[in-house]
């Protein structure tokens, strides 16, 4: 069927988008809803159920629960590793695209970061545990922050390289002619232009750090465990606490959603300002 203008109808695209959205959202909605159910109701597969807050109370305020501590740990590790990773990636991207590196050096470096990013994190966990124990950083925030920053650094470098490459060289040349040093050039010229890309890279880095499980499990103990490690502990040897696991998973989604909403507004604002300029 064609529209009045003779263009083909776009309903198949809309249907495909709706199906794709349902594939993504239905498991999330089911998980969040499971947090408001009793264990018996969930295991019996009841469609209609009376919502309860028992699971959230147990996760947050039970005497045996340390979920709030785990939440704090994830925020500390996520924020610190994001700042470290994005800062290093920005400097690396600027160096790769604006200094006199030979082209083959840049290509080899980027290829190596891609290969490193493809290595499963669990394959690095044991080596990192041994290394951190040797230097006295086992079961510490510092060790986990360094590990998460290292894991996400290849992705951040690739993303920041794209944004730095798009900065007009005329702006940098004008700043250099005015006597700007490299730190001043980077802070006053490059960073304002790539602010939307910086925000996007920071969001992805934080979300990946927040969700990382294998390395966090290997490098942390009770005092430094993060949210993914805490959620896994609901699967015990003789019992799996499905509803409490679902409640904690629902709570774990909140920081990532908040960061995404904030970054979305920031990115749109940055792009709009760029268009006006």
UniProtKB/TrEMBL annotation:
Gene3D superfamilies: MetI-like. Its main location: membrane. It comes from Bosea vestrisii. InterPro entries: BP-dep_ABC_trans_perm, MetI-like, MetI-like_sf. Belongs to the binding-protein-dependent transport system permease family. Residues 71-263 form the ABC transmembrane type-1 domain. This is Carbohydrate ABC transporter permease. Keywords: Cell membrane, Membrane, Transmembrane, Transmembrane helix, Transport. The keyword Ligase does not apply. The keyword Cell wall biogenesis/degradation does not apply. PANTHER family: INNER MEMBRANE ABC TRANSPORTER PERMEASE PROTEIN YCJP (PTHR32243:SF18), MALTOSE TRANSPORT SYSTEM PERMEASE-RELATED (PTHR32243). The chain crosses the membrane at residues 12-33, 40-56, 76-96, 108-129, 141-164, 185-210, 242-263. It is a multi-pass membrane protein. It is found in: Cell membrane.
């Amino acid at each position: 069927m064609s529209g009045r203008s003779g263009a083909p109808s776009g309903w198949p695209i809309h249907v495909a988008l709706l199906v794709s959205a349902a594939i993504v959202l239905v498991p999330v909605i089911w998980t969040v809803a499971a947090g408001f159910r009793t264990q018996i109701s969930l295991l019996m597969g009841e469609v209609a159920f009376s919502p309860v807050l028992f699971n959230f109370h147990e996760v947050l305020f039970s005497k045996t629960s340390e979920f709030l501590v785990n939440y704090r740990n994830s925020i500390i590790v996520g924020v610190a590793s994001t700042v470290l990773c994005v800062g290093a990636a920005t400097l690396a991207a600027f160096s790769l695209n604006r200094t006199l590196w030979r082209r083959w050096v840049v290509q080899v470096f980027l290829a190596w970061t891609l290969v490193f990013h493809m290595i499963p994190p669990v394959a690095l966990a044991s080596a990192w545990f041994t290394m951190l124990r040797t230097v006295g950083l086992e079961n510490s925030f510092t060790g986990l922050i360094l590990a998460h920053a290292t894991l996400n650094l290849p992705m951040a470098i690739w993303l920041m390289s794209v944004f730095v490459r798009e900065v007009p060289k005329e702006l940098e040349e004008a700043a250099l002619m005015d006597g700007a040093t490299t730190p001043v050039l980077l802070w006053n010229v490059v960073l304002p232009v790539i602010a939307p890309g910086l925000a996007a890279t920071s969001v992805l880095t934080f979300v990946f750090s927040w969700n990382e499980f294998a390395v966090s499990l290997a490098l942390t103990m009770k005092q430094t465990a993060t949210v993914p490690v805490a959620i896994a502990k609901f699967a015990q040897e003789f019992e799996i606490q499905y509803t409490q696991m679902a409640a904690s998973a629902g709570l774990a989604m909140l920081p990532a959603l908040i960061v995404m909403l904030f970054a979305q507004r920031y990115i749109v604002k940055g792009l709009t300002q760029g268009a006006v300029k």
